[in-house]
Every structure is written in structure tokens, then in C-alpha cells.
Amino acid sequence: MKFRFLKRIRHLAEGAFVGLAFIFFHYILPPKQSLALGGWIGRHFGPLLPWSKRAKRNLKKCFPGITQVEIKGIIKEMWENFGLLAAEYASPDTFWDGKKLYNIEIVGLENLENFQNDQKPGIIFTAHTGNWQMITLAAQSIGFDLTQMYRPANNPFVDRLMLKCQKLAVKNVITKRKGGPRDLFSLIKRGEHALLLIDQKLGEGLSIPFLGREAMTATGVARMYLNQGCPLLPARSERLHRTSRFRVTFYPPINYVPRGNHNKDMYDLLLSINTMIGEWIKERPGQWLWLHRRWKD
Known about the structure:
The protein has helices spanning 2-28, 31-45, 51-62, 68-89, 109-116, 133-140, 156-169, 180-189, 220-228, 262-283, and strands at 104-107, 122-126, 147-150, 172-175, 193-197, 206-210, 213-217, 232-239, 246-250. By secondary structure, the chain is an alpha/beta fold. The protein has one domain (2-287). The strands form two sheets. It has a seven-stranded mixed sheet, with helices on both faces. Strands 6-7 form a two-stranded antiparallel sheet. A hairpin with a 2-residue loop joins strand 6 (206-210) and strand 7 (213-217).
């Protein structure tokens, strides 16, 4: 009883802090100053937080020869990216005003347009790199509305605010709560399109190499591809020059030919996806969230 009470007090305090920060960044500060302050806070205060220790462990696991100087630089950039991202979530109209796209360069637009117009349902998959919300804004710029799968925050007060921020940039959101996978399956059966982030912590799925180490990997996208014939389109967001300018790349759809052994096909398809995402992270390690327990200790 006492533990639940203290937990609720902590959640209330966290929720109040995040709520005040949202009001400050969304309603009070001009967008340019808001983004600059978000990056400054992340860069200077993020590395001091205890979660940075986990990021350091994860970096050592994935890059055995990495130096302390390199670790420090990646963690500093990661927190700067996170601070900018938080400010950007509060100001999506800085990038898309409903008519025109700003500060987002699109590569592979033809892949997105073909994906939109192929008369099939589909899943765009990405990772927590750069600012992944720019992918939905880039899609909206050609009249392509995606439904995004959203993982609820553990704090219910913070979750409400995060969901509000999510809906500033995405028209349709389904959560990973109970029933979320069923909602996603129904959406695909109706011939619609979804955006999924598939790179973070998972307690179930298949153990697949990711950045050189075994990691539990969600199987949903592979099942949709192999069982439902659902096209999969990789998309990547990159922050350019540590500013609020982005490159969003839409790659050609996954073209994996099943070999008849379902378990082997699942493994090989997920391995190819993990390898692709791993290459993105290696190219820009400071733009990925290293804070989760992605690998077992």
C-alpha cells in the first residue's frame, strides 16, 4: 500500500514536471529558441543522469574496442538528440503546417509513392534514430496518412501528455496495450498502412543478432510479411549536422523470398532487418537511444 502511494506521488511529480515543460516549449518559447534550449538541456544535463550508465554499458557491449572519449561523445550527442526531439515533439508545425514541409529532405520518395499506390496494405518499419516522427510528416506531405503503433509510457500522467504530442503529428495512433496487436492486424486486413518502431527492448519474440549480440526481437512484421503477404518498407530518419534539419530515406521494399521452412524464414528475415537497422546505428551512433536494456547482461 505504501509502495503504491509513493509510486503515485512520484508519477504525479514527473507528470507535473513534463506538463510544465510542454507548456513552456509549446506555448511560451518561440520555436527556434525552444529547439535550441531543448538541445542545450539534453547536451549538458543528460550525461549526468543515471541512465547514462546503461548507455555506456550498451556501447561497450556492441563496440568492444570503443574508447572512453568515444563513449562520452556518443552519449553527449545522444542526449542532445533527445533534448531536441522533446522540443520538436512540442512543435511539429515547425516541420509541417498542413500544406508545406520544412527542414525535411526526402530521399526515395518514389518508393513511398509506389508503396502508397500498390493497392495493398503495408507496414513501414523504422528505428529510434534521429526523430522518427519526421517519417510520418514526410508521408503526410504527399497525402499519405499512416497509423502509428505507440508504446505507452509507464507513468500514466506522462503517457497522456506523450499521446497528445503524438497526435499533434500523427492522425491515427494505436497503443501497444492489450489488444494493440489485434488492432494492428485488423488495420492490415482492411488494407491500411502502419508505422512501427521495431528496435527497442522486448521480453518476447525470437533471439536474433542485433549489433553483434543476441537480442529478443519482435516477430510481428515478419509474420505479417510471411503469412499475410504484407509489404514492408524500411524508412530512416537522420538528423543533419546536430540541428533540427532532417533527411528521411524511404528504401525499396523488403524483397525476401521464403524458402519453405517457416521458422528459418522468420529467423532469416528478422536477421536481415536487424542488420539493416544496425548499419544505420553504426553510421550515426549518437542518434540512437542507447538507454534501454536491449541486451541481457
